[in-house]
Write a structure and sequence with these properties.
Elements: E1 7-12, H1 18-28, E2 32-34, E3 37-39, E4 53-55, H2 58-66, E5 70-76, E6 79-84, H3 85-93, E7 97-101, H4 104-113, E8 118-123, H5 127-137, H6 142-156, E9 164-167, H7 171-185, H8 193-205
Parallel strand pairs: 1-7, 1-8, 2-7, 3-4, 8-9
Antiparallel strand pairs: 3-6, 5-6
Helix pairs in contact: 1-7
Bound molecules: adenosine-5'-diphosphate and guanosine-5'-monophosphate.
The site of adenosine-5'-diphosphate (ADP) has 13 residues, from helix 1 and helix 5.
Length: about 210
């Protein structure tokens, strides 16, 4: 079926496991290209510039906005986050499925610009488990965790905008479900117009 690259947006509450899931997904299947965002937040211990994010100053980030070098950007809990244009356009043109792990304001901007994009939302099984994972990660203060949980409550209002919701309970099950949903999207008639046209032509000639 369709070998055209799909633009995939993955959002979800902070701490739901998006980063962990995306890492597993690209390890397991080589058709996915994971976009690396730019951000003004400080790196967490273990994060490297150019691997998890491109870590920029506010001035550098604002320069990217002015240069139209980002396909979307948003402010989240006091920092800028945005998607560099060049990588996404190149990988899609090469026929790869490009994954953007971004929050909801960015997701809605992508949907407007790329109506064919597939929007997936990742949740934990419960709010209690969300807090447990955020605390367990050990990378944020209690104050930041509270801000992120407050933000999660707002984001929950927008889940209906997404095409699919996936619960990250068992990690490997969730990775498989995400892959299956994306795989199914390649079979949509709207993404296979060339094949359908070819079949119609052949049937008429028959
Ligand atoms: P996000 O990118 O959505 O903010 P992370 O990938 O950083 O979330 O995951 C948050 C924490 O939850 C990490 O400590 C991670 O190891 C843990 N985690 C992720 N997925 C699972 C899972 N399925 N079960 C238990 N813990 C998980
Ligand atoms: P974190 O600080 O936990 O890495 O990310 C905070 C939030 O920003 C997450 O919801 C993440 O999905 C989102 N995010 C990361 N990169 C981007 C981006 O390029 N654009 C937008 N709009 N959100 C992003």
């Amino acid at each position: 079926m369709s070998h055209k690259g799909i633009l995939i947006v993955v959002s979800g509450f902070s701490g739901a496991g998006k980063g962990t899931l995306m890492k597993r997904l690209v390890e397991e299947y080589d058709r996915y290209a994971l976009s690396i965002s730019a951000t003004t937040r400080a790196p967490r211990p273990g994060e490297e510039d150019g691997r998890e994010y491109f870590f920029l100053s506010r001035e550098q980030f604002e320069r990217k906005i002015a240069d139209n070098a980002l396909i979307e950007y948003a402010e989240y809990c006091g920092n800028y986050y945005g998607t560099p244009r060049e990588y996404v356009e190149k990988e899609l043109a090469d026929g790869r499925d490009v994954i953007l792990e971004i929050e909801i304001q960015g997701a809605l901007k992508i949907r407007k610009q790329y109506p064919d994009a597939l929007l997936l939302f990742v949740s934990t099984p419960s709010a209690k488990e969300l807090r447990r994972r955020l605390s367990g990660r050990g990378t944020e203060t209690e104050e930041v965790i509270d801000r992120r949980l407050h933000r999660a409550a707002q984001e929950a209002e927008g889940i209906e905008e997404y095409d699919y919701i996936v619960v990250n309970d068992d990690l490997e099950t969730c990775v498989r479900e995400l892959h299956e949903i994306i795989d199914a999207a390649h079979h949509a008639p709207g993404r296979n117009e060339e094949f359908i046209e070819k079949m119609r032509r052949e049937l008429e000639e028959n």
